[in-house]
Design brief:
Layout: E1 2-9, H1 17-31, E2 33-39, H2 43-47, E3 51-53, H3 90-100, E4 105-110, H4 112-123, E5 128-132, H5 148-169, E6 172-177, H6 184-192, E7 197-199, H7 207-219, E8 225-230, H8 236-239, H9 243-253, H10 257-269, E9 273-276, H11 289-308, E10 313-318, E11 321-326, H12 327-330, H13 342-349
Parallel strand pairs: 1-2, 1-4, 4-5, 5-10, 6-8, 6-9, 7-8
Antiparallel strand pairs: 2-3, 10-11
The structure holds 6-O-phosphono-beta-D-fructofuranose.
């Protein structure tokens, strides 16, 4: 039986997207008579009818490739059901394209925003299957998302490299790790990179407590300090502000999270504190071996779901098992770091401070 599968990647890119696309395609071609339509730049392509019929050869040689061969965008957005100035009913447009293409299923590779839209389309009666990607690892119901481990390897290497130069100069280095809402990447790379302090959005910090560590290390002749700070980390005063107020304050002062911490430490302790922002380096390039395997497993599981006619779900890793969860349970729920998470307590047990 022929099955027409639409596939798209949406939201911020991450390593492993192409490996997952390849996993879906290769397994689908093996299991049934598959026709795969690549939808360009995420949901934008579905709204604007921008797609192409893919050939088998297009899924070759992409296992190790960073980014996404399909392109991505952050469309649609917040109030998707609200018709904007362009007067386009985006939900209706996506449904229309799906019907016109005569799709049996739509595969969406993405993070939290992508899953919200996927769930909405599923509620509208489309056959949708999600694949959880993001370097933030903040999708509910899966132990890990693909992309996270690669970003963790990169962020850890950044911290390692900063370590040696910090030690040589006796500096305090504040390294800003990606993650606006969730601190998973900062937590893991901070522990892996031997940071002295880890500051994450889920645990608002008191800068005086961070300053104490810098001071103590200086007094112990360990003149350098490594601080891993998530881009969304905030101090206790900022945490009391509304999100918009916090953002406005940061924007007005031109401070990133790391620059803010470095400035305060320089003032409080009188050390030379520098901020380092590796930024999108953490998202670029080839996936790690772990992510190639996980992406392939996720992709193959999605193909099996299509074969078995199971839709309205997103693929997940639980323990050692690849499984799936209802989209309705995952959409709109971010998986944040619980302040009493075992890795937080482990880090605290070896003297890493969180500033709480
Ligand atoms: O969701 C992944 C992520 O890299 C976040 O860690 C970060 O806050 C955000 O995307 C940055 O998005 P953009 O690349 O659109 O600036």
């Amino acid at each position: 039986m022929k099955r027409r599968i639409g596939i798209l990647t949406s939201g911020g890119d991450c390593p492993g997207l192409n490996a997952a696309i390849r996993g879906v395609a290769r397994a689908a071609y093996e299991m049934f008579d598959a026709e795969i339509i690549g939808i360009h730049d995420g949901y934008r392509g579905l709204i604007e009818r921008d797609f192409s019929l893919m050939t088998r050869s297009q899924f070759s040689g992409i296992l190790t490739l960073g980014g996404t061969i399909l392109g991505t965008s952050r469309t649609p957005f917040r109030n998707m059901r609200v018709i904007g100035e362009d007067n386009v009913d985006k939900v209706a447009a996506m449904k229309k394209t799906y019907k016109e293409l005569n799709l049996d299923c739509l595969i969406t590779l993405g993070g939290n925003g992508t899953h919200k839209t996927a769930n909405l389309l599923s509620e509208e009666g489309l056959n949708v299957i999600g694949l959880p990607k993001t370097i933030d690892n903040d999708i509910f119901g899966t132990d890990f998302t693909f992309g996270f481990h690669t970003a963790n390897d990169i962020a850890t290497e950044v911290i390692d490299r900063i370590h040696s130069t910090a030690a040589s100069h006796g500096r305090c280095m504040v390294i800003e790790i990606m993650g606006n809402k969730a601190g998973w990447l900062t937590l893991y790379s901070g522990v892996a990179g031997g940071a002295d302090a880890i500051l994450i959005p889920e645990i608002p910090y008191d800068i005086n407590k961070v300053a104490e560590v810098v001071q103590r290390r200086a007094e112990n002749n360990k003149a350098f300090t490594i601080i891993a700070v998530a881009e969304g980390a905030m101090d206790k005063a900022e945490a009391k502000l509304k999100k918009k107020e916090r953002e406005a304050r940061r924007a007005a002062e031109h401070f990133s999270a790391s620059a803010y911490v470095a400035k305060q430490l320089t003032e409080l302790v009188g050390v030379e504190a520098r901020s380092v922002v590796p930024g999108h380096i953490q998202r670029g390039g080839t996936p790690s071996a772990y992510d190639r395997v996980l992406s392939t497993q996720f992709g193959v599981h999605a193909a099996k779901l299509i074969r078995d006619g199971i839709f309205g779900v997103t693929v997940a890793l639980k323990g050692n098992e690849i499984t799936h969860n209802p989209l309705s349970e995952v959409a709109g729920v971010a998986k944040l770091v619980p302040p009493d998470h075992q890795l937080v307590t482990t880090a605290k047990s070896i003297g890493i401070i969180f500033g709480d």
